[in-house]
Design goal:
about 80 residues, alpha+beta, 1 helix, about 55% helix, rod-shaped, binds zinc ion
Length: about 80
Protein backbone atom coordinates (compact mmCIF):
# COMPACT_ATOMS: atom_id res chain seq x y z
CA UNK A 1 0.00 0.00 0.00
CA UNK A 2 2.73 2.41 0.96
CA UNK A 3 4.77 1.45 -2.10
CA UNK A 4 1.78 2.05 -4.35
CA UNK A 5 1.32 5.50 -2.85
CA UNK A 6 5.00 6.24 -3.34
CA UNK A 7 4.87 5.15 -6.98
CA UNK A 8 1.83 7.35 -7.62
CA UNK A 9 3.57 10.27 -5.92
CA UNK A 10 6.70 9.80 -8.03
CA UNK A 11 4.62 9.53 -11.19
CA UNK A 12 2.72 12.71 -10.34
CA UNK A 13 5.98 14.48 -9.54
CA UNK A 14 7.54 13.39 -12.85
CA UNK A 15 4.46 14.47 -14.78
CA UNK A 16 4.57 17.81 -13.00
CA UNK A 17 8.23 18.24 -13.89
CA UNK A 18 7.56 17.29 -17.52
CA UNK A 19 4.64 19.68 -17.81
CA UNK A 20 6.65 22.49 -16.26
CA UNK A 21 9.51 21.83 -18.67
CA UNK A 22 7.19 21.72 -21.67
CA UNK A 23 5.49 24.96 -20.67
CA UNK A 24 8.85 26.64 -20.11
CA UNK A 25 10.09 25.54 -23.53
CA UNK A 26 6.92 26.74 -25.19
CA UNK A 27 7.11 30.09 -23.43
CA UNK A 28 10.76 30.53 -24.37
CA UNK A 29 9.94 29.82 -28.00
CA UNK A 30 7.06 32.30 -27.90
CA UNK A 31 9.18 34.96 -26.19
CA UNK A 32 12.03 34.48 -28.63
CA UNK A 33 9.71 34.92 -31.56
CA UNK A 34 8.15 38.11 -30.21
CA UNK A 35 11.30 39.65 -28.75
CA UNK A 36 13.82 39.07 -31.50
CA UNK A 37 12.79 41.98 -33.77
CA UNK A 38 12.55 44.23 -30.72
CA UNK A 39 16.11 43.45 -29.71
CA UNK A 40 17.32 44.12 -33.22
CA UNK A 41 15.54 47.47 -33.38
CA UNK A 42 16.72 48.57 -29.95
CA UNK A 43 20.35 48.51 -31.09
CA UNK A 44 22.14 51.83 -31.21
CA UNK A 45 22.40 53.43 -34.62
CA UNK A 46 25.78 54.71 -35.71
CA UNK A 47 26.70 56.77 -38.74
CA UNK A 48 29.17 55.53 -41.31
CA UNK A 49 32.30 57.67 -41.34
CA UNK A 50 32.50 57.64 -45.12
CA UNK A 51 29.08 57.57 -46.77
CA UNK A 52 27.01 58.75 -43.82
CA UNK A 53 24.66 55.78 -43.80
CA UNK A 54 23.09 54.98 -40.46
CA UNK A 55 23.63 51.38 -39.47
CA UNK A 56 22.97 49.22 -36.45
CA UNK A 57 25.92 49.29 -34.07
CA UNK A 58 26.11 45.49 -34.19
CA UNK A 59 26.40 45.52 -37.99
CA UNK A 60 28.88 48.39 -38.11
CA UNK A 61 32.59 47.85 -38.63
CA UNK A 62 34.76 49.78 -36.19
CA UNK A 63 38.22 50.92 -37.10
CA UNK A 64 40.47 53.55 -35.46
CA UNK A 65 37.60 55.05 -33.49
CA UNK A 66 35.41 55.44 -36.54
CA UNK A 67 32.52 53.30 -37.70
CA UNK A 68 31.74 52.14 -41.21
CA UNK A 69 28.59 50.64 -42.67
CA UNK A 70 30.35 47.95 -44.70
CA UNK A 71 33.71 46.72 -45.95
CA UNK A 72 33.38 48.86 -49.07
CA UNK A 73 33.56 51.99 -46.92
CA UNK A 74 36.59 50.84 -44.93
CA UNK A 75 39.71 52.92 -45.65
CA UNK A 76 42.67 51.03 -47.08
ZN1 LIG B 1 29.41 53.64 -45.60
Amino acid sequence: MLIKTAIVMVAVYLLYRLAKYAIKKKLEKLLNRTMKPEIKNSGQLVQCGKCGTWVNEQDAIKKRGLVYCSRTCLPD
